[in-house]
Amino acid sequence: MEGLIPTVVLFIAIQFILLFLHPLQPAMSRPHNNFTDLESLLAFKASVADPHGLLATNWTANASFCSWNGVRCSHRRQRVVALKLPDFFLGGSISPHIANLSFLSFLDLSNNTLTGPIPGAIGRLPRLALLSLAFNSLSGPIPLSIFNMSSLVKVSLKMNNLSGSLPSDTDPPFMLPRLQKMSLSENHLTGSITPNFARCSQLQGLSLSFNNFSGSIPPELGNITGLNILYLGANQLTGTIPASIGKLSKLNRLELGGNSLQGVIPEELGNLLDVQYLGLAENNLTGSIPMALLNASKIDNLILFGNNLIGSIPATLGVSWPQLEILNIRRNLLTGRLDFISSLSNCRNLRHLILSENKISDFLPNSLGNLSTSLNYLVLYSNYIKGRIPSTVGNLSGLIGLDLGQNELVGEIPSELSRLKGLQGMSLSRTRLSGYIPHELGLMTGLNALILEENALSGTIPHSLGNISGLQILSLAANGLFSSIPDSLWSLSGLRELNLSGNTLDGSLPQQMDNLKFFDKLDLSKNRFSGNISSVLGNLQMITYLDLSNNSFDGEIPSSLDRLVINVEYMNLSYNRISGTIPKSFTNLGKLYSLDLSFNKLQGPIPEGGVFSNSSIVSLEGNPTLCGAFKLGFSPCPSPSNSKSNLHLLKYILPPIVLVVLLLSCFCTRLIFRIWGKKLNLPSEDASLNTIRVISYRELVRATNNFSEANLVGRGSFSSVFKAYLDDGLITAVKVLNSENQSALRSFDAEYCVLSKIRHRNLVRIISMCSNLDFKALVLQFMPNGSLEQWLHSHSYYLNLLQRINVMVDVSFAFEYLHHYHPHVVVHRDLKPSNVLLDENMTAHVSDFGISKLFLGDSQSILSATAPGTLGYMAPEYGSTGKVSRKGDVYSFGILLLETFTRKKPTDAMFDGELSLRQWVTRAYPSAVLEIVDPDLLKKVLIFNGNQALQLLLANVCRRLLNWVCLARGTRHKRGFR
């Protein structure tokens, strides 16, 4: 015994020394007591980063660990039962020694910046009921041991970087008998959703959304009878929605959106009588909205957008879902009417009504104004909604966003919209709205964005828009606005985007633009602005998009634009009259993806390097005096030495040339006087044929990019017309005749003969021609504003009253010249809107003389074997007898006049049988004139105080128009028009 005692003492001493040297070793083999808890907490503290010292100031040996921040102990045994440290800004990792807190029931380390894996030892905590590690940066798989903890009630691991899959049937047992809530959302978990969740009989909430789960939704989930929250959205799930989901009678919120589910919405979902939130968006669901779904009367959020649903929206949904707050069914294939709008007035909590990007075709009902004043967003864009905007929309005082764009709306913008004081964004773009922009819109002082682009609005930009001090986005592009930009707009210091392109605005860029320090996008293209490009543009250093193209700016590019190199990504100054050289600083435009300086009067060397070394970024064509930049297709610049020698040679060459020119001038002058002495009349215009330049076929191929479809302007039975860019920078129209059509070849000779002799400001001018055995083409003056046809009959274009009168006057001047002032009478025989072309100043030019005829004398006519012309525009006797005369053109001009002011084609479907356009107008005179005039035109004529004055004016116009038509037939109107 005496020898045994030293041995036992030595053994105990060794154990004590080992314990002292390894105090933080997990004590799996020794009893867990408060010393173990202390060791575990200290090990936890050592593994985490505590940048704000929230643990360092409190977790010290001077105080009991039961008083440390986030630590809670049991009263009887002083053992740690809870560790709650959310929002403590802790970094580092989770120590596995935390598993030695054997009495731990609550572990909450959420909303920190912890990294590394979740220790698998946590799964051995026998009393753990709550585990929350959400909102960290933990990685790796979820330990399988966690899925076999009989004590767990709530688990939240969402918003981490966890990966791996859920346990399968071959893994350790999946036993969570007390589990009530589990959230694994917003991680990177993969694999399928295990049906083992059905074993969790007490499960109430399951969130697996925003992961990468695949496969189908397990039908077994329908057996979790106590489930009230099921979030499986934003995964890669396929298959159909299990009908068994309809058995979850206590379900309150169901989110399956953002997957690839297909098939129809199960009728069984109508059994979810307690469901409030139903989200099935962004799938491939088909079929219609099931009527059985109306049984789920507690629905307050129905989110079905981004599917392929068809059919109509149930008319009684507002009655069935009185608690509805959000209805979002955009981006589907829904059709039908808007009759359900009336039932929605029963939903007094409705906040979002989003029906955009469907195929709904109906008129906006007045009942729209009966919707809840709580409605924040009304979004109906991209449908087939027709009619006028009801003024009752002004009753929706709670609106924040209103979007009715991309529909078929007509009429004016209701001034009642100005009552929407809280409205922040309004878009009425791409519709057929007309009239003036109401000045009352300036009362909507809460607006951040006003988008009215691509309509038929006219008049001036209201000065009152400058009162909307918070306006950030203003787009009035592609309308018929004119006059200058009001100065008040330049006072909107918060304006970020201004798009006024595609109008007829004029004036110059003012100095007040300097106020717009936060400008990001400025588009003033396709207007009539003139003057120098203001140097204040250089102060807009935040700008990324600048488009001043297709205007009349002149002068040089201001050097102040150097300061835009920081942010500008797109710059377009093309189709102006800008001269001077290209600033060398443009080579520093580092973020630029497009620079267009084409078709100006720029000269001198092209800067080297930077963006000018990339031909896909820079466009400089149409500036023939530029030089350098071989990659961009320009000739090299002359060297200074060559220039000096050339100047030296000019000293000797120029004087003899001048002398010769003077002698020739004197000789020509004397010759002309001699001719005048013999003959007083002017020389024949045939002499002008010698001045017509013949262009080679090869140049036309280059100018039209080998006659590509991209340059095709129009195609007829005899010819095709291409837009062409000649080598000297001139933009032209090339009319290429069909060489296989013999009548087309005969038409070429006649047309060239006529056009080459004619010079008048209202006739399309011939520039050149190209002819060989297999190819015949005319090079004509290009008309950038297209034809009268598109301006009358396309909803994207609009001509006001003055413009229409000017066009008709231009056409009349053209025919006055052809019929009376040309040496020979020229009859066109095919006058119609498509043959009236408009140049950049909206001046009309009559085109297409391919079937014109020359007549020797003033009153001769000719019988034609064919009946050229277009049905509806030909005089009746012209089509029946083939007799050609000037009266036929006069008749066509009269029909063109009626069409211009009624906007009705003579071939309209309404003119069948005995009724014609002329007869229709005749019957309307004088009592119903307002009914036949273009409705859009009436809305623009606001200078009259009442319908009586307008009626009288239009009746007088109709009288004169009808007389034009009757004049061709040698008659007067039966009602005594004079």
Break the fold down into its secondary structure elements and pairings.
Elements lengths: L3 H18 L12 H14 E2 L21 E3 L6 E5 L6 E2 L13 E3 L21 E3 L6 E3 L12 E3 L4 E3 L17 E3 L21 E3 L6 E2 L13 E3 L4 E2 L15 E3 L6 E3 L12 E3 L4 E3 L14 E3 L13 H4 L5 E3 L11 H4 L8 E3 L22 E3 L6 E2 L13 E3 L4 E2 L15 E3 L6 E3 L12 E3 L4 E4 L13 E3 L4 E4 L13 E3 L4 E4 L13 E3 L4 E5 L12 E3 L4 E5 L13 E3 L4 E4 L13 E3 L4 E5 L12 E2 L5 E3 L12 H39 L14 E2 L2 H7 L8 E4 L3 E7 L5 E7 L4 H14 L10 E6 L4 E6 L6 H6 L7 H21 L3 E3 L8 E3 L5 E3 L6 E3 L6 E2 L12 H6 L1 E2 L1 H17 L14 H8 L4 H4 L2 H6 L6 H21 L11
Helix pairs in contact: 9-11, 11-15
Membrane topology: Single-pass membrane protein
Keywords: ATP-binding, Cell membrane, Glycoprotein, Kinase, Leucine-rich repeat, Membrane, Nucleotide-binding, Phosphoprotein, Receptor, Repeat, Serine/threonine-protein kinase, Signal, Transferase, Transmembrane, Transmembrane helix
GO molecular function: ATP binding; protein serine/threonine kinase activity
Structure summarized in a few sentences:
This protein is α/β, with parallel strands linked by helices and 978 residues long. 19% of the residues lie in helices and 19% in strands. Among the domains are: 12-161, Ribonuclease Inhibitor (Leucine-rich repeat, LRR (right-handed beta-alpha superhelix)); 687-781, Phosphorylase Kinase, domain 1, CATH 3.30.200.20; 788-967, Transferase(Phosphotransferase) domain 1 (Transferase(Phosphotransferase), domain 1).
